[in-house]
Amino acid sequence: MTPNGHFACSAPWLKGQERADLSNSLEEIYIQNIGESILYLWVEKIRDVLIQKSQMTEPGPDVKKKTEEEDVECEDDLILACQPESSVKALDFDISENRTEVEELPPIDHGIPITDRRSTFQAHLAPVVCPKQVKMVLSKLYENKKIASATHNIYAYRIYCEDKQTFLQDCEDDGETAAGGRLLHLMEILNVKNVMVVVSRWYGGILLGPDRFKHINNCARNILVEKNYTNSPEESSKSLGKNKKVRKDKKRNDH
């Protein structure tokens, strides 16, 4: 940006019309956020332009990630059946010949989507007891072209190891920085175990800022509560109230 407040776009891949379109988009972001820091918003916009350009010049398979609003078709398309998947064959990962872990693909449930400013978020949940099942669930979800084309598929899982009395857990941002860690932290707070949650986000062309993390966690929390992996907020409050009452009664008895 020049001292007088103007800026110029320059890159080997920028042609006349593309440069003009990008400059107009950046200027529009500046006008909409006068007085605020816009560097991050500009970086996000340029990143989206680069992704769109790479998709047009190098068309890939259906699993290639897209950010165009047109990829988010009608809302009915996104609302996958909120019922467990029917029994399917276990996927072959060629991990080892001695397969002692559970190999069956667990049932997968799909939550109700949340839509905000043309971005849509939807959670998917599956019970898991070993890392191999985590891979199976991910592979099964990616068979769905709609899920495979999501801008981000963030996931986290927690598996309780009875023998070691510890948790085996991990997470994945899938391009949405810190989203996987936030999702895993939520699952730790809720103290859930032997379950994985995947949250798909279809970007609608409008930046949501911190709200996107709120929607990701809300999707995950809703499906965890719905599938009885944790107490509902009301039950948790009642339970907390009962515990407090018990402690008070105990103190009275001690006196």
UniProtKB/TrEMBL annotation:
Signal peptide range: none
Residues covered by region (Disordered): 230-255
Matching SUPFAM superfamilies: Ribosomal protein S5 domain 2-like, UBC-like
Basic residues bias (residue ranges): 241-255
Family the UniProt entry places it in: Belongs to the IMPACT family.
Polar residues: bias regions: 230-240
Pfam families: Impact_N
GO cellular-component term (any): cytoplasm
Domain named Impact N-terminal: residues: 117-224
Protein name: Protein IMPACT isoform X5
GO biological process: GCN2-mediated signaling; regulation of translational initiation
Native species: Sapajus apella (Brown-capped capuchin)
Superkingdom as given in the UniProt entry: Eukaryota
Stored InterPro entries: Impact, Impact_N, Impact_N_sf, Ribosomal_Su5_D2-typ_SF, UBQ-conjugating_enzyme/RWD, UPF0029_Impact_CS
